[in-house]
Amino acid sequence: MDHKVTVVGAGHVGATTVQRIAEAELADVAMVDVLADMAKGKALDMMESAPVVGFNSRIEGGGDYDATAGSDVCVVTAGLARKPGMSRDDLLAKNQAIVGGVVEELVKRSPETILIIVTNPLDAMCEVARRVSGFPRERIFGMAGVLDAARMRYFIAAELAVSVEDVDAFVLGGHGDTMVPLPRYATVNGVPLPDLLAADRIEAINERTRKGGGEIVGLLKEGSAYYAPSAAVVDMVAAILRDKKKILPCAVYLQGEYGLRDLFVGVPAKLGRRGVEEVVELELDAGEREALERSADAVKELVEALPS
Q1: Which of 218-227, 239-248, 269-278 has the lowest mean pLDDT?
Q2: Which CATH number is 4-142 given?
Q3: Residues tagged active-site
Q4: Which residues contact 305 (CB under 8 A, 6 or more apart)?
Q5: Which one of 50, 99, 170, 283 has the fewest beta carbons within 10 angstroms of its own beta carbon?
Q6: Yes or no: is domain 145-304 CATH 3.30.465.10?
Protein backbone atom coordinates (compact mmCIF):
# COMPACT_ATOMS: atom_id res chain seq x y z
CA MET A 1 0.00 0.00 0.00
CA ASP A 2 1.07 3.59 -0.63
CA HIS A 3 -0.23 4.77 2.76
CA LYS A 4 -0.02 3.79 6.39
CA VAL A 5 -2.63 4.40 9.08
CA THR A 6 -2.36 3.78 12.80
CA VAL A 7 -5.40 3.05 14.94
CA VAL A 8 -4.82 3.18 18.69
CA GLY A 9 -7.36 1.13 20.57
CA ALA A 10 -8.35 -2.42 19.53
CA GLY A 11 -11.81 -2.30 21.06
CA HIS A 12 -14.99 -2.33 19.02
CA VAL A 13 -14.53 1.10 17.40
CA GLY A 14 -10.83 0.69 16.75
CA ALA A 15 -10.93 -2.88 15.44
CA THR A 16 -13.91 -2.20 13.19
CA THR A 17 -12.14 0.87 11.82
CA VAL A 18 -9.06 -1.21 11.05
CA GLN A 19 -11.16 -3.83 9.31
CA ARG A 20 -12.94 -1.24 7.14
CA ILE A 21 -9.67 0.50 6.17
CA ALA A 22 -8.03 -2.77 5.21
CA GLU A 23 -10.99 -4.12 3.27
CA ALA A 24 -11.20 -0.84 1.32
CA GLU A 25 -7.44 -1.11 0.66
CA LEU A 26 -6.94 2.47 1.80
CA ALA A 27 -3.68 1.73 3.62
CA ASP A 28 -1.62 -0.71 5.61
CA VAL A 29 -2.67 -0.49 9.25
CA ALA A 30 -0.92 -0.65 12.63
CA MET A 31 -3.34 -1.41 15.48
CA VAL A 32 -1.99 -0.68 18.96
CA ASP A 33 -3.54 -1.46 22.32
CA VAL A 34 -2.39 -1.84 25.92
CA LEU A 35 -3.75 -5.37 25.59
CA ALA A 36 -1.07 -6.27 23.07
CA ASP A 37 -2.09 -9.89 22.54
CA MET A 38 -5.70 -8.90 21.90
CA ALA A 39 -4.56 -6.43 19.22
CA LYS A 40 -2.23 -9.05 17.75
CA GLY A 41 -4.97 -11.66 17.73
CA LYS A 42 -7.53 -9.41 16.09
CA ALA A 43 -5.01 -8.36 13.45
CA LEU A 44 -4.19 -11.99 12.68
CA ASP A 45 -7.88 -12.87 12.48
CA MET A 46 -8.47 -10.02 10.01
CA MET A 47 -5.48 -11.01 7.88
CA GLU A 48 -6.78 -14.57 7.69
CA SER A 49 -9.98 -13.14 6.20
CA ALA A 50 -8.03 -11.38 3.42
CA PRO A 51 -8.02 -14.32 0.99
CA VAL A 52 -11.80 -14.61 1.34
CA VAL A 53 -12.66 -10.91 1.22
CA GLY A 54 -9.89 -10.15 -1.26
CA PHE A 55 -7.79 -7.33 0.18
CA ASN A 56 -4.02 -6.88 0.15
CA SER A 57 -3.58 -4.31 2.92
CA ARG A 58 -1.34 -5.48 5.75
CA ILE A 59 -2.49 -5.30 9.37
CA GLU A 60 -0.04 -5.43 12.26
CA GLY A 61 -1.33 -5.59 15.81
CA GLY A 62 0.38 -5.34 19.17
CA GLY A 63 1.40 -2.99 21.95
CA ASP A 64 4.61 -1.53 20.51
CA TYR A 65 4.33 2.02 19.20
CA ASP A 66 7.40 1.51 17.04
CA ALA A 67 5.10 -0.22 14.56
CA THR A 68 3.31 3.12 14.05
CA ALA A 69 6.35 4.99 12.70
CA GLY A 70 5.78 6.86 9.45
CA SER A 71 1.98 6.89 9.64
CA ASP A 72 0.13 9.27 7.33
CA VAL A 73 -2.89 9.31 9.64
CA CYS A 74 -3.26 8.27 13.29
CA VAL A 75 -6.71 7.57 14.69
CA VAL A 76 -7.11 7.64 18.48
CA THR A 77 -10.00 5.54 19.77
CA ALA A 78 -8.34 4.46 23.03
CA GLY A 79 -10.22 5.28 26.20
CA LEU A 80 -13.07 4.17 28.40
CA ALA A 81 -16.46 3.79 26.75
CA ARG A 82 -19.63 5.21 28.21
CA LYS A 83 -21.80 3.04 30.39
CA PRO A 84 -25.57 3.48 30.88
CA GLY A 85 -26.23 6.63 32.90
CA MET A 86 -22.73 7.98 32.26
CA SER A 87 -22.40 11.23 30.31
CA ARG A 88 -19.49 12.02 28.04
CA ASP A 89 -18.45 14.60 30.61
CA ASP A 90 -17.95 11.87 33.21
CA LEU A 91 -15.21 10.44 31.04
CA LEU A 92 -13.16 13.64 31.05
CA ALA A 93 -10.56 12.95 33.73
CA LYS A 94 -10.13 9.26 32.99
CA ASN A 95 -9.63 9.68 29.27
CA GLN A 96 -7.44 12.79 29.47
CA ALA A 97 -4.49 10.76 30.75
CA ILE A 98 -5.04 8.02 28.19
CA VAL A 99 -5.26 10.33 25.18
CA GLY A 100 -2.33 12.47 26.32
CA GLY A 101 -0.07 9.46 26.67
CA VAL A 102 -1.13 7.98 23.34
CA VAL A 103 -0.57 11.21 21.41
CA GLU A 104 2.86 11.68 22.95
CA GLU A 105 3.93 8.24 21.70
CA LEU A 106 2.47 8.78 18.24
CA VAL A 107 4.02 12.16 17.47
CA LYS A 108 7.47 10.92 18.51
CA ARG A 109 7.34 8.38 15.70
CA SER A 110 5.20 10.19 13.11
CA PRO A 111 5.87 13.92 13.51
CA GLU A 112 4.15 14.78 10.22
CA THR A 113 1.06 12.67 10.77
CA ILE A 114 -2.56 13.84 10.84
CA LEU A 115 -4.38 13.07 14.09
CA ILE A 116 -8.06 12.13 14.16
CA ILE A 117 -9.44 11.97 17.69
CA VAL A 118 -12.44 9.74 18.42
CA THR A 119 -12.22 9.27 22.20
CA ASN A 120 -14.94 10.96 24.26
CA PRO A 121 -15.59 13.57 25.46
CA LEU A 122 -14.51 14.31 21.92
CA ASP A 123 -14.07 18.07 21.85
CA ALA A 124 -12.10 18.15 25.10
CA MET A 125 -9.92 15.22 24.03
CA CYS A 126 -9.05 17.13 20.86
CA GLU A 127 -7.77 19.93 23.08
CA VAL A 128 -5.72 17.45 25.10
CA ALA A 129 -4.17 16.12 21.89
CA ARG A 130 -3.48 19.65 20.63
CA ARG A 131 -1.63 20.60 23.80
CA VAL A 132 0.46 17.44 23.80
CA SER A 133 1.25 17.34 20.08
CA GLY A 134 1.74 21.03 19.38
CA PHE A 135 0.31 20.36 15.91
CA PRO A 136 -1.32 23.08 13.81
CA ARG A 137 -5.08 22.83 13.56
CA GLU A 138 -4.86 21.49 10.01
CA ARG A 139 -3.40 18.25 11.37
CA ILE A 140 -5.52 17.60 14.44
CA PHE A 141 -9.30 17.35 14.54
CA GLY A 142 -12.10 15.16 15.79
CA MET A 143 -14.62 12.71 14.39
CA ALA A 144 -18.03 13.77 15.57
CA GLY A 145 -20.11 15.59 12.99
CA VAL A 146 -19.81 12.87 10.35
CA LEU A 147 -21.35 10.42 12.82
CA ASP A 148 -24.01 12.83 14.10
CA ALA A 149 -24.96 13.82 10.54
CA ALA A 150 -25.12 10.16 9.50
CA ARG A 151 -27.56 9.46 12.31
CA MET A 152 -29.69 12.44 11.28
CA ARG A 153 -29.59 11.33 7.63
CA TYR A 154 -30.75 7.84 8.58
CA PHE A 155 -33.60 9.16 10.73
CA ILE A 156 -34.75 11.43 7.88
CA ALA A 157 -34.60 8.59 5.35
CA ALA A 158 -36.55 6.29 7.65
CA GLU A 159 -39.18 8.96 8.31
CA LEU A 160 -39.70 9.64 4.62
CA ALA A 161 -39.12 6.06 3.41
CA VAL A 162 -36.46 7.18 0.93
CA SER A 163 -32.94 6.06 0.13
CA VAL A 164 -30.28 7.19 2.59
CA GLU A 165 -28.18 8.06 -0.46
CA ASP A 166 -30.58 10.89 -1.31
CA VAL A 167 -30.31 12.55 2.11
CA ASP A 168 -27.74 15.19 3.11
CA ALA A 169 -27.54 16.89 6.49
CA PHE A 170 -25.20 18.91 8.71
CA VAL A 171 -24.80 18.95 12.47
CA LEU A 172 -22.72 21.64 14.17
CA GLY A 173 -21.40 22.16 17.69
CA GLY A 174 -20.02 19.93 20.39
CA HIS A 175 -20.37 16.15 20.28
CA GLY A 176 -23.02 15.74 22.93
CA ASP A 177 -26.52 16.72 23.93
CA THR A 178 -25.92 20.36 22.93
CA MET A 179 -25.10 19.54 19.29
CA VAL A 180 -26.92 21.65 16.71
CA PRO A 181 -28.72 19.82 13.89
CA LEU A 182 -29.41 22.12 10.94
CA PRO A 183 -32.65 21.02 9.25
CA ARG A 184 -32.58 24.12 7.02
CA TYR A 185 -29.46 22.69 5.41
CA ALA A 186 -30.81 19.13 5.21
CA THR A 187 -32.03 18.05 1.78
CA VAL A 188 -33.57 15.00 0.13
CA ASN A 189 -32.30 14.81 -3.43
CA GLY A 190 -31.96 18.58 -3.35
CA VAL A 191 -35.36 19.30 -1.77
CA PRO A 192 -35.08 21.17 1.56
CA LEU A 193 -36.26 19.10 4.50
CA PRO A 194 -38.71 21.78 5.77
CA ASP A 195 -40.58 21.38 2.46
CA LEU A 196 -41.09 17.68 3.15
CA LEU A 197 -41.77 17.35 6.87
CA ALA A 198 -43.81 19.19 9.46
CA ALA A 199 -41.96 21.17 12.10
CA ASP A 200 -42.84 18.76 14.91
CA ARG A 201 -41.49 15.76 13.00
CA ILE A 202 -38.29 17.64 12.20
CA GLU A 203 -37.82 18.52 15.87
CA ALA A 204 -38.35 14.87 16.81
CA ILE A 205 -35.56 13.93 14.39
CA ASN A 206 -33.34 16.69 15.81
CA GLU A 207 -33.88 15.40 19.34
CA ARG A 208 -33.23 11.78 18.40
CA THR A 209 -30.03 12.90 16.67
CA ARG A 210 -28.85 14.66 19.84
CA LYS A 211 -29.57 11.56 21.90
CA GLY A 212 -28.37 9.08 19.27
CA GLY A 213 -25.32 7.85 21.13
CA GLY A 214 -27.16 7.53 24.42
CA GLU A 215 -29.97 5.58 22.76
CA ILE A 216 -27.51 2.94 21.59
CA VAL A 217 -25.69 2.84 24.94
CA GLY A 218 -29.01 2.18 26.64
CA LEU A 219 -29.87 -0.65 24.28
CA LEU A 220 -26.45 -2.33 24.40
CA LYS A 221 -26.28 -2.14 28.23
CA GLU A 222 -22.49 -2.46 28.03
CA GLY A 223 -20.26 -0.44 25.69
CA SER A 224 -21.32 2.05 23.06
CA ALA A 225 -21.83 2.40 19.31
CA TYR A 226 -19.09 1.25 16.96
CA TYR A 227 -20.42 0.36 13.50
CA ALA A 228 -21.47 3.90 12.62
CA PRO A 229 -18.54 5.60 14.40
CA SER A 230 -16.01 3.42 12.56
CA ALA A 231 -17.71 4.11 9.23
CA ALA A 232 -17.50 7.84 9.96
CA VAL A 233 -13.78 7.59 10.74
CA VAL A 234 -13.09 5.74 7.52
CA ASP A 235 -14.96 8.39 5.53
CA MET A 236 -12.57 10.97 6.96
CA VAL A 237 -9.47 8.82 6.42
CA ALA A 238 -10.43 8.21 2.80
CA ALA A 239 -10.99 11.93 2.20
CA ILE A 240 -7.47 12.63 3.49
CA LEU A 241 -5.53 9.82 1.83
CA ARG A 242 -7.30 10.22 -1.50
CA ASP A 243 -7.14 14.03 -1.32
CA LYS A 244 -10.85 14.24 -2.03
CA LYS A 245 -11.38 17.82 -0.84
CA LYS A 246 -14.57 16.47 0.69
CA ILE A 247 -16.64 18.71 2.95
CA LEU A 248 -17.41 16.88 6.18
CA PRO A 249 -18.49 18.11 9.62
CA CYS A 250 -15.49 17.75 11.97
CA ALA A 251 -14.40 19.08 15.36
CA VAL A 252 -11.95 21.80 14.30
CA TYR A 253 -9.92 24.26 16.38
CA LEU A 254 -11.64 27.50 15.41
CA GLN A 255 -9.76 30.76 15.03
CA GLY A 256 -12.56 33.28 14.58
CA GLU A 257 -14.88 31.29 12.34
CA TYR A 258 -18.49 31.40 13.50
CA GLY A 259 -17.36 34.03 16.01
CA LEU A 260 -15.53 31.38 18.06
CA ARG A 261 -11.85 31.18 18.91
CA ASP A 262 -9.41 28.74 20.56
CA LEU A 263 -12.01 25.98 20.86
CA PHE A 264 -12.71 22.68 19.10
CA VAL A 265 -16.24 22.85 17.73
CA GLY A 266 -17.99 20.81 15.07
CA VAL A 267 -18.19 22.68 11.75
CA PRO A 268 -18.11 21.79 8.04
CA ALA A 269 -14.51 21.39 6.88
CA LYS A 270 -12.85 20.54 3.59
CA LEU A 271 -10.62 17.48 4.11
CA GLY A 272 -7.71 16.66 1.82
CA ARG A 273 -4.15 15.43 1.91
CA ARG A 274 -3.08 18.28 4.20
CA GLY A 275 -5.89 17.59 6.65
CA VAL A 276 -8.34 20.43 7.25
CA GLU A 277 -7.82 22.64 4.22
CA GLU A 278 -10.71 25.03 4.79
CA VAL A 279 -13.43 25.73 7.33
CA VAL A 280 -16.76 26.31 5.57
CA GLU A 281 -18.85 29.01 7.22
CA LEU A 282 -22.60 28.56 6.82
CA GLU A 283 -24.99 31.46 7.21
CA LEU A 284 -26.89 30.86 10.44
CA ASP A 285 -30.11 32.47 11.55
CA ALA A 286 -30.42 33.94 15.04
CA GLY A 287 -31.75 30.73 16.60
CA GLU A 288 -29.07 28.55 15.04
CA ARG A 289 -26.30 30.91 16.06
CA GLU A 290 -27.60 31.05 19.63
CA ALA A 291 -27.73 27.24 19.78
CA LEU A 292 -24.17 27.00 18.44
CA GLU A 293 -22.95 29.46 21.06
CA ARG A 294 -24.63 27.42 23.81
CA SER A 295 -22.96 24.30 22.49
CA ALA A 296 -19.59 26.07 22.37
CA ASP A 297 -20.10 27.21 25.97
CA ALA A 298 -20.62 23.58 27.01
CA VAL A 299 -17.37 22.61 25.27
CA LYS A 300 -15.59 25.52 26.91
CA GLU A 301 -16.67 24.34 30.37
CA LEU A 302 -15.13 20.94 29.70
CA VAL A 303 -11.89 22.43 28.40
CA GLU A 304 -11.63 24.75 31.40
CA ALA A 305 -11.96 21.69 33.65
CA LEU A 306 -8.83 20.18 32.10
CA PRO A 307 -5.65 20.63 34.18
CA SER A 308 -3.24 22.93 32.33
Answers
A1: 218-227
A2: 3.40.50.720
A3: 175
A4: 92, 124
A5: 283
A6: no
